[in-house]
Design a protein that fits this description.
five-stranded antiparallel β-sheet, 238 residues, alpha+beta, Phosphorylase Kinase, domain 1, single chain, globular, 6 helices, binds cytidine-5'-monophosphate, 2 domains
Length: 238
């Protein structure tokens, strides 16, 4: 396929059309943002690491029967995906209390949840992605109840698969964010799965191997993302 005009530029990625209406071309940038874009930096090689990490996660999930937009890795920073009409809902899945949940409910980070929690946020930068529930989604017709059933089932399945997989890499899957879209009417998992969108804690040292290193000024972000890629590649090459 041939890359055509840019359709959209987000905080971490650019999306281009191609000569095939079923395929988009995604380029991962080195930009890091946090707190709804208030904090910004360029992190060397972040786009390369997230492109490769996302591709490995999507390929692994596809093998286990999860429908994703991933088509193929093109080069260091670029991948082909199926074209999606984005559903404007961000889905967060949590296994361990951290981040905004810790603040909202006043429970310490690291508290184990007895079962996974799903949360929904309206994808709107100007509003800072406010939390919503399934009544809002249905009433505003952002997704049908049938699409929401598919989204929840996929989110919980991704959680089960990735929790077990990360466990085998000696990493706790604390929480993560997913986005979904429609491709010819079918719900597919879209966006990216990377240390920008997940919390990963080393099981022994509890070291954070994710974007909290940037949010909390801990340093060593590139090294942490490289460590995630190293463990993924080590496991997947077996
Ligand atoms: O900030 P919060 O604790 O709600 O984040 C939960 C999870 O969702 C974290 O892994 C975070 O990286 C991810 N997230 C995201 N994009 C957002 C909000 C949260 O990737 N806009």
């Amino acid at each position: 396929v041939q890359k055509q005009e840019q359709m959209y530029e987000g905080k971490a990625k650019k999306v281009f059309r191609t000569d095939d209406p079923n395929i988009y071309w995604i380029q991962y940038k080195d930009s890091a943002t946090a707190f709804n874009g208030e904090k910004k930096a360029e992190i060397d090689n972040k786009g390369i690491l997230n492109n490769r990490i996302s591709a490995l996660f999507f390929q692994y999930l596809e093998k286990q029967g999860v429908p994703t937009h991933f088509v193929e890795l093109l080069n260091d920073r670029e991948m082909l995906v199926k074209s999606l009409e984005i559903i404007p809902v961000e889905v967060v899945a949590r296994n361990i209390v951290a981040g905004s949940l810790s603040k909202r409910i006043g429970q310490p980070e690291g508290t184990l949840l007895a079962k996974p929690v799903l949360e929904f946020y309206y994808k709107d930068d100007a509003l800072g992605d406010p939390m919503i529930n399934e009544y809002h989604i249905a009433a505003l017709e952002w997704a049908t109840p049938e699409q929401m059933d598919a989204i929840k089932a996929i989110a919980l399945k991704v959680n089960e698969i990735l929790k077990e997989f990360m466990d085998s890499l000696n990493i706790d899957l604390v929480d993560f964010k997913l986005e979904f879209g429609l491709h010819n009417g079918t719900v597919l998992l879209g966006d990216e799965i990377s240390p920008d969108t997940c919390r990963f804690w080393d099981k022994d040292t509890k070291e954070k191997l994710d974007k909290d290193r940037f949010r909390r000024d801990l340093g060593g972000l590139e090294e942490a993302y490289r460590e995630i890629l190293r463990r993924l590649e080590g496991k997947l090459q077996d």
